[in-house]
Prior knowledge:
Layout: E1 7-15, E2 18-24, H1 39-56, E3 62-66, E4 69-76, E5 98-104, E6 109-114, E7 120-125, H2 134-140
Antiparallel strand pairs: 1-2, 1-5, 3-4, 4-7, 5-6, 6-7
Amino acid sequence: MTEATRYVRVDFFHFKAFKNFRLQLRHFNILVGPNNAGKSTILAAFRILAAAMRRAEHRKAEIVSGPSGQTHGYPVDISSISIGEENLFFDYDDSEPATVRFKLSNDNELLLYFPEKGSCILFADADGKTNHTPTSFKKAFNCRRGAE
Length: 148
């Protein structure tokens, strides 16, 4: 029996409470810490990812502007997600993009990219491929979304 795909690492850059932070994940995780330690920031990233994945599971990737130029991605309507949009950038500084990268146990990666206020794009990389149909996306990124 093969192990289910799961999240093994999350890298935050310039996102909410984190200027630069790496979170290693295990099979079971508990978030504990004082106020303003970043627990809600981690949950917000997973809430945004869950919404982005729902979109990707039902629509083909579009050509969008990403961190490395034109590529395939999924624009995400973050106004419909219960998070504080006004402070998505570390220290409220929106002069550079924020990113959250999710590494999966099958070596695939999902990147939430926030190029400016009110804007988010999901990039999905499976074996170097970024253009996904809903079927290929579901197959490559078949993992639980903990914030749902």
